[in-house]
Amino acid sequence: MSSSPVSAVSAPPASAPASRSPWRSLRYRSMRWWSVANFVSNAGTWMQLTVQNLLVLQITGSAAATGLSMSVQAAPALLISVFGGAAVDRWPRKLTAAVSQALLGAVAFATALLVALDRLDVTTLMVLAAVTGVVATVDGPACSLLGNDLVPPEDVPSAIGVGALVHQAGRLTGAALAGVAVGFLGTAAAYAANGLSFLFVASVVPFLRPARGAAGQTGKAARHERADSLSVREGLAFFARRPRLLALAGVTGISAVFGRNYQLTLAVLVTGPLAGGAGSFGTVSTVLAAGGIVGAVLGARLRRPSVRVVGALAAAGGLLQVVAGLSPSLAVLLVMVLPMAVVESVSDTAGTSVLQTDPPAHLRGRVLGVWGSIGTVWGLGGPPALGLLMELAGARGALVAGGLIIAASIAAGHLLHGRRPKEPTALRAEDTVVPARVALGTAA
Question: Which of 71, 76, 165, 395 is the most buried (most CB within 10 A)?
């Protein structure tokens, strides 16, 4: 690959007015290449995921084994994400992303070879799933932060929004290509295609260059200066004493447990009280996906996302969920589902922007590592808790009660925050290399 298309640093003129376009991050050539690479990688990953569960069922004949393979792959995120985030802070980010993508590609190629030779057994499958999970604890934060490093701080929400759109587009494309690949070339082809997609990303990474004023230009120096002085423990301590990150974790956790699991709650509501079928729920799922895309575009327009914005959107989503739970018909539900999905997507984009820009550059990998562990807890514990609530209150009751819990919890938190004495927060010198005013401004 020639270096000229990607390595050239492009930036808008210094006198250009601030843009609120959701696509403003794509003004930078390297960001355009990174988005293309992410699309290819996402399409390959979703192609593989589409056939993976079928492969496990084919090998084991057990639905329990399918669930176990997913848990084995998710377990490393719960246990060692903080160490993966520390590695991202300590090592050169581009090198880390390129190597992790190459390793994931090697795992995909190994799986494809074993499937083609009919040598893949349950034990080997679990080992490969665990290895993938371990590498992903480094690859996730490395790739997330690398994209942000390519653009100025004010364009990070756009970069995150574009990334969300790329994810959705890759998911749809990968799912569609999976049927073609398996039908004409076999299951191994899906894994091989995913391996090629990882190698494509790894080949693009070395040619990426940050735009003038991008966070990556100052963050690199900060990480190099602090690489030997920071530990996993200090990253955890930073997160624990950062009130806005704790507030963000609380808002996101409550929303994740009592809302958002719409594939579960709405499926039961549609097929139960609303007397719909699989086709009706498919329509609801399509509207959810469309709302997610619209929300990602709107979220990319944000310039200074904050925890307050995330909380307000989450509370609004909870109230919309209450109305959806009371829907007398499928038509009314569809009207409510679209704004629910839009609000959720904008909230996600705003929250991700705060999470990835509030910490100083040399600590962002560690913060994402802590977040990965917390998110895994929500992902594993949320569905069972919501399922129990549905057993007790039914689908309508779970949606209404969950929405009220979300809105009330966020309102209570806001009131408690308002009553807290207004004292300036002093950042210790060893925690940050940027002025406190700048560090705190993003998530005020």
Answer: 76
